[in-house]
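>> received
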Amino acid sequence: MLQGKNIILGVSSSIACYKSAYLARALIKKGANVQVVMTKNATQFLTPLTFEQLTGRKCLVDTFDRNFEIKVEHISLAQWADACLIAPASANVLAKMAHGIADDMLTTTVLACDCPKLAAPAMNTRMYENPATRENLETLRRHGFTLVEPEEGFLACGDVGKGKLANEEVILDYLEAVIGAEKDFNGQRVLVTAGPTREALDPVRFLTNHSTGKMGYAIAKAAFLRGAKVTLVTGKTETPKPRFVDVVEVVSARQMYEAVMSRASEQDILIMAAAVADYRPQNIAAEKIKKMDGDSVLPLERTDDILASAGAARRPGQFLCGFSMETEHMLENSRKKLEKKNIDMIVANNLRQEGAGFGVDTNIVTLITKDSEESLPMLSKDEVAMKILDAIAARIKE
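>> returned
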């Protein structure tokens, strides 16, 4: 999402500024070009040389330093940047930015930037909760800043409370949300299903499958990054939930059916990536089923077909995308599913292909519509999610 993006990383005076080194490294790993700008007081905690080694660029501190060279020809640093991120943002720097004070390299650069600006505060709890700081934060919000809330915990000063610099993964998620993708789904309402369902057998056991929810979660995140308002209906998984989406947690196929159908009419796009159980036990034992001699038979009954029900109840203009995981005759079975369930697109994959199964970070899919097939190579699930949305956007445009 950040490949090739030009990021100004502003580092102000806070004990948390050592975390900025990890943040700079994480940005570089994501393919971003990073220019660090420090306040003079911040250099008392961490040397500019640290950032220079990490980024390959001279760290800027002094407004009047004539010995640095920005590796972008004929344009200023502010014009060069796709985003300006201040992390950590001290109470002092927040106050300066809120009131347009530009008395050092960092605040001068921020004031000159017309790109998206983000700030991640870090300070003592009492300083953070001080009315003056709260007013400055509100002023920055009104001026268009995106603020990454600090975390609660044990602070360097010995206090316990809110004021810790947000985790680097959280900060990166906010940055991706702001500049990670074109907002071509702006205004669209998208519902995504993900993960497995669990069908209870007794209070101890249940029937389920190997789905981790990674593909559905990647789609939900991608849809948000592209501007959609996203609802994620998910079964139980250990995969971290994507930020910035409305998460509806369910357990059984019946619960997922009710969660989807109660919201389906409000959605513009439905993407059904969940691995929903086709069958459930006919009877759920009230107590644990005891082991007996000999074999046992477990009677099963069909669960509700969520995709078929959504297809039957779809409103005009609504786009439906289903998933088809097969072990044989993938294209033939997927095309039958496409027609039978009255949907617009099927994302098909073969569980037997290495890199396309449950629990991995890659996928190999074929996008199938009534009149087309597009086979994709093995990609990360994040990349597959973007390709799926590209195909949906193209179909909607047609």
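>> Residues 70-75 have pLDDT under 50 and may be disordered.
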